[in-house]
Every structure is written in C-alpha cells, then in structure tokens.
Design brief:
Number of strands: 6
Structural class: alpha+beta
Oligomer: single chain
Helix content: 10-25%
C-alpha cells in the first residue's frame, strides 16, 4: 500500500435545516466552505493507527467499523488533520470519515459512503457528494430527497470564537 492522501471540505452550517412536514425527516441544505476541511494521509501498516495532531476526530472503533462497512482494510497509519474545530458544527466528523475512506482507496458510489457514515454516526452531512449545496439532504437517513438549483454566488464571513459548546 502506497501513501495516499485525501482532502474533504467541510461546511459552515446550513442554508436551511428542519423537519420536512409534521412527521417527515430532518433535512438540510448545507452551506459549503472549502476553507474548512479534513485531510487524511494514510501509509502502510499492519494495524490501524489513527493520529490527529491533538484533535480526536474519530475513535479507532468507529474508524474500524466504518472501513469494514465499506469493505476496506482496517489497517495502516492514518494522520487526520482538521482545519476546523472538532464539535464546531462544520462537518468535521463526516469529513473525517469520508477522507478516511478515500485515503483507504474508496472510489465507489457516494450514496454507499453516505449510508456507511449514517450507520457509524447516526447522521451525516452530504460532504461525500460533489455539490452538497445542491442537495436537499435527509441527514439521519443519508439520502437525497431533491436536487434544488444551485445557490446564488455568495461569500461567507464568519469564524469560530472560543471552545465548541453543546
């Protein structure tokens, strides 16, 4: 296995989020932010070793289960680096899973990646798709409900202040 690298952009919240109808699914349209990303670099190794530069993006158990769901080998040394605060609502955990899969060689259907992410975390942002802002996304189901038109051109001015709080 050669050294592989993957970068997955996060988001800066949502254009909209809520329940679709009285009893429908929780849906969102994500606000993409390519400046916020998770990078995974994977090198050969017999066992799975995760490193996060002081940030814990994924537990080894979640990473192993996720890789196994995708039929990927759960081994190698993986450095995960986030350009966003973990727990800050910018998609760090979804981006970390997607980057882990891509660095591990996953090149399949993004819908399969979404299902594995939901099975691992219980919800997902649509970061595995090329144009996440063009999806009405059922986050707890990991599926596309509609494909709205592209959002108008925009600039986001924002940032993070202090530690993330629930």
């Amino acid at each position: 296995m050669a050294v592989t690298r993957a970068r997955v952009a996060g988001h800066f919240g949502e254009f909209l989020q809520g329940r679709l109808g009285a009893e429908g699914p929780v849906v969102l349209v994500t606000l993409p932010c390519p400046a916020l990303a998770v990078t995974a670099q994977r090198s050969p190794g017999q066992h799975l070793h995760l490193h996060g530069g002081g940030q814990r993006l994924l537990s080894p158990a979640h990473a192993r289960a996720f890789l196994e769901r995708l039929g990927l080998p759960a081994r190698g040394r993986v450095n995960l680096r986030a350009d966003m605060p973990v727990g800050g609502g910018a998609g760090a955990s979804t981006a970390a899973l997607v980057a882990l899969a891509r660095a591990g060689g996953f090149a399949g259907d993004p819908a399969q990646l979404a299902r594995a992410t939901v099975a691992t975390e219980g919800a997902s942002d649509p970061l595995m798709f090329d144009a996440p802002a063009r999806l009405l996304w059922a986050s707890r189901e990991g599926r596309i409900l509609a494909r709205p038109p592209a959002p108008p051109a925009f600039d986001v001015i924002g940032g993070f202040a202090g530690a993330p709080q629930r």
